[in-house]
Amino acid sequence: MEQEAALPKVSLGEIVLFGLILFIVDVFCTLLDFTGIGAAVTPFIQAGFTAMMTAWFYWSKKDKAVTKLGRQIIKYASNLLPWVPTLFVVFVVEAYMHNHPKQAGVPIVEKMKNISAGKTS
Questions:
Q1: CB 95 within 8 A of CB 10
Q2: Is the pTM of this model over 0.70?
Q3: What's the pLDDT tens digit per position in 79-115?
Q4: Does residue 59 sit in helix, strand or coil?
């Protein structure tokens, strides 16, 4: 409990700056998707930025939960979706889960597990 409270929060400035950078990368990847070579190139570009985002949360924000296997699978699998700004969405969700671990962390992860298992409710 105290460990969660001691984690440095993601500030609004960091969310705006990194969100903008990741959104620009997403737009670039979307443009590549429309050219036809996107399926071969964009997952690797997005995987590199996803690894960078994970490392930033892990080392800068001291969030050890960001490296859990389930979260990694969801993040990297989302990179395969064409025309969707997955980096931006994943970053915003990760920042929210980091800043609000009790309110958002468990329900969002549980909902993602249910969706991936094919359960609807």
A1: yes
A2: yes
A3: 888 888 889 999 998 898 888 877 755 566 666 677 7
A4: helix
